[in-house]
Amino acid sequence: MTHSNPTEQATPEGQAAGVHFIHTRLKKEIEAGQVDRVITRFPPEPNGFLHIGHAKAIVLNFSMADTFGGYTNLRFDDTNPAKEEQRYIEAIKEDVRWLGYTWQNECYASDYFDTLYEYALHLIDAGLAYVDGQDAEVIKAQRGTLTEPGIPSPDRDRAVDENRALFERMRAGEFEDGAYVLRAKIDMAAPNINLRDPVLYRIRRQHHYRTGDQWCIYPTYDFTHGQSDAIEHITHSLCSLEFEDHRPLYDWFINHLPVPARPQQIEFARLNIDFTVLSKRRLTRLVDEGHVDGWDDPRMPTIAGLRRRGFTPQSIQNFCHEIGVTKAESVIPFGVLERNLRDDLNVRAERRMAVLKPLKVVLTNFDAEQPEYATLPNHPQDPSLGERQVPITKTLYIEQDDFMEDAPKKFFRLKPGGEVRLRGAFIVRCDEVIHNSEGQVVELRCSFDPESRSGLPGAERKVKGTIHWVSAEHAVPANVHLYDRLFNVPHPAKDKAVDFVTHINPDSVEHCGGAMVEPSLADWPAQTPVQFERLGYFIPDINSLPGKPVFNRAVTLRDTWAKLEKALRAQGT
Ligand code: ATP
Ligand code: MG
User: What is the pLDDT of residue 11?
Assistant: First the structure.
């Protein structure tokens, strides 16, 4: 795997965003009249939730069909009864819809079990498939290697009638699991191992979440995938590179079966992102072993996790368009995904003030019985989003981090004897620091300068720092979760000798249970991102309640990881 510069990859020379080799190829075919429209499918196996890698495939499939006058099917490749579940179907549908895409047909490979069975009989009758009575291990051992041909099974030349009778009896449930398999009769010496008489059907007494106990034999993925595309009249089967070596096999099936269409397969490189894992097998482990709080844990790279974290469909689409589609494997920095979110939210998220770790400030010369109100714009560049009145009272909270007792010279926030502007209000000076018996700072006594009120003539008096605050009397207590990278190394699954879970970042979530937020955040609408000034973009968690808000931080305002990643990369980790 190579590290590629994402900006280079986004717009390779002379290539506009959204234009990539698949786009170019399809455009040519349309112009040459080889196809009149492009029909694609997104074919997940319902054995887990979708992740950001799937989003790349979704965006590609839907955008190509959309660009070239066709449509996209959502097809569940559900041939493995052991791992598939209805709840994954529901989750996948929700995620595709949320990403902003509408499929034409909802299809299931399991709906084609009858047709696939007929196809298998067709191959048997043509002398192109045989029933093998050897053990799975023996068959595997006989496949040979890249340098040695495979060993033909003693059953390879079984008569057609006998094959048919045995296969029908397999279906009828007359044999035990594993007693026989059906194999294609192609070429045991083929340089491509996939062509060395692959298994087409297995006996498996397993309940299927859709077909129930109707079948005790199940087709393999390889025998299902390409034919399903053909049955649906898919024109272009876009899939990730690991299927490149399977293409000759898929073509062989298509050439020898009475299928209604001939899809063409085009492969592209999978998406990899650093500091995370994108494989359902690994993500399933994280969930099953309790390393995370379910598939939609905001640290997960799943669509459900990203949504709960505060990502928007637009930011994910933009990200997928930016990274483009190539045949070269690369690892995209997580920061590229975050930058797309920031760019999207910067334009539309309203601004509010919230204090994550409050420090009490008493304004000694603030005697008004009634609160004053600071008028603050809801968005610095978009007046159409309005403004709001934020109450100021004698007792306020500021961020603990915005005060330092032994501050260095360059610390421009609050320090003993120092001045700072409270955002939208006035300048305060720290006159006295109150400690508890353990020496911790528990309160600041400050005086404010009435002449420096924002908006007043004379308010221009400048101090170097401006900090956020909330009124102690009006603020609403909140729970805030701050998220960081799920793993503390860029490529957690790279070293196969080390279990990837050992690289989980123990500080990947920080809970701020005592946060105080401005009143307007008490009942913030669900799924609506908001910027907490100076702190980042947040979204109410799914467990947020009116008056008891819970917020997740989607992303900080600046990329604090960029530097660190650069350093790590220089070390070659
Ligand atoms: P995983 O390895 O995570 O289990 P998968 O390929 O087995 O993924 P499927 O449900 O079979 O998962 O994937 C559905 C489609 O999504 C396939 O066409 C596959 O090529 C594509 N896809 C899966 N992961 C990625 C990825 N990281 N980048 C791009 N496309 C992907
Ligand atoms: Mg798969």
Answer: 40
Ligand 2 centroid distance, CA of 225 (Å): 10
Hey, CA dihedral for 123, 129, 132, 136, is it positive or negative? negative
Q: Ligand 1 center to residue 443 CA distance, Å?
A: 54
Instruction: State the residue for tokens 């990539």.
Output: 20
DSSP conformation letters of 37-88: S--EEE---SSS--BHHHHHHHHHHHHHHHHTT--EEEEE----TTT--HHH
* 164 noted as active-site residue: no
Q: What is the pTM of this model?
A: 0.92
Residue 329 amino acid letter: E
**214-231: per-residue pLDDT in tens?**
999 999 999 999 999 999
Q: Which domains does the chain have, with CATH numbers?
A: 21-105+232-340 (3.40.50.620), 112-222 (3.90.800.10), 350-484+494-565 (2.40.240.10)
Instruction: For residue 412, give the DSSP letter.
Output: -
